[in-house]
Amino acid sequence: TASSDGNRLYPLYDVGLRVAPAGAAPLDLQVQGPLVLQEEGDAMALRLNSAGSESWLADGRADRTLVRVSGLPAAVLPSLGVQDARGDWLFTWADLAAAGGTIQLIPGVDWSGSTNLQVLISQLQADGRLLSSALTGMALDVEAVADAPLLLLRAATTQEDTPLALQQLVQ
Q1: CA triplet 137, 143, 148: central angle to 5 degrees?
Q2: b/e per residue, 91-125, with b = 16+ CB within 10 A?
Q3: Strands 135-143 and 36-38
Q4: What whole-number distance in Å separates Cα of residue 162 and Cα of residue 115?
């Protein structure tokens, strides 16, 4: 579609972009969740999965697996993790497993907009090697919702050509 200034506008879609180092990424990562939520709505659940992650808790790799979520605006807070100096959110796979494999994204009141999330997992192996997943991207759109009006009025009756004070109308 074209905008009023003649520039083309492209809708925001999740194209499932996955950026990996040369060759295949050693760790698998899938990110699933809705692409659109409303600013006044509930939190959005992102589900993270990795092939073979069921065994990570038993052998201790879940505590050595770091999940990095980047691209979140300051007004959207995740239910897990700590924020680093770059603004990314970090938590372990063990934290994620304790939350049922799901992280909630909670939009701030009156914030709407679009962003591109990026998720990456890195796992420290027992022999000191570091394995990483592909950088997995996901588009997120928070739709604006109009707030309910705050002005409440009472009914009032007056005679024609008789002034009526506005204070009598406001509750």
Answers
A1: 155
A2: bbbbbbbeeeeebebebeeeebeebebbbbbebee
A3: parallel
A4: 56
Q: 15, 21 in Cβ contact below 8 A?
A: no
Length of the chain: 171
Any alpha helices (H) in 15-140, and if so which ranges?
A: 56-59, 93-98
pLDDT tens, position by position, 128-167: 888 999 888 888 888 887 777 777 777 878 888 888 887 7
Give, for 168, the enclosing helix (H) or strand (E): none
pLDDT digits (tens, 9 = 90+) for 32-90: 887 666 666 668 888 999 988 999 999 999 999 999 999 999 888 999 999 999 999 99
Taking the whole predicted model, whether its pTM rises above 0.90 is answered as no
- Helices within 23-67 (DSSP H only): 56-59
Residues β-bridged to residue 8: 2
Instruction: Note the pLDDT of residue 163.
Output: 85
Q: Which residue has the tokens 């009156």?
A: 110
Phi, psi angles (nearest 5°) of residue 54? -60, -30
Residue 96 three-state SS = helix
- Tokens describing residue 171: 């509750």
Q: How far apart are the first and last CA of the chain?
A: 46
